Amino acid sequence: MNTTAIHRIAVIAAATMMSVAEAHALIPDAPEPSVVFAEDFSLVPAIEPWSGSRKAAFNQDETMKPEFFHQEGWKGWYITYGMEAGMVHFEMDQDAYLQTPALELSADGGKVTVSFEYRRLSWPGELTTTDNFYVQLRDRADGKDKGITGILANGVQVNTEWKEYRVTLEGGTPDCSVRFWCGSYPGDLRNVKVMQVRPQLDIPVADTFTDFTGESFTAHWRQVEGADHYLLSVFTIDDDTRAYRMQDQVVEGTAYKVEGLDPAKTYHYAVKARKGELVSGESAVIRCFGIPKPVLGAFSEVTADRFRVSWEAPYNANTYQLETFVRHTAPQAERYYLLDEDFLRTPSQNVQPDSPARGGAAEWLDDYIHRSNWSVKHPAYAADCIGLDNTFASMGEYGEIDGPTMDLSADGGKVTVEMRVRARNAASMSIYLMNAREKVNEFTSDIIADRVELWDKDCKLDPLTEEWTDRVFTLTGGNRESYIAIQAYGYGALVQIDRLAISQELKEGEAARVPFRSVVTGACEAYISTDGEGFSNADDEFECELMGAYVPNPGQDEQTVTSEWSDIASVRLPDGKSGISGTTDTATFSATTDGSRVIVENPGGNTVAVYTVSGTLVTSSRDAMVVTKTLPSGIYIVSAGEKAVKVAL
Question: pTM of the predicted model, to two decimals?
Answer without folding.
Answer: 0.56
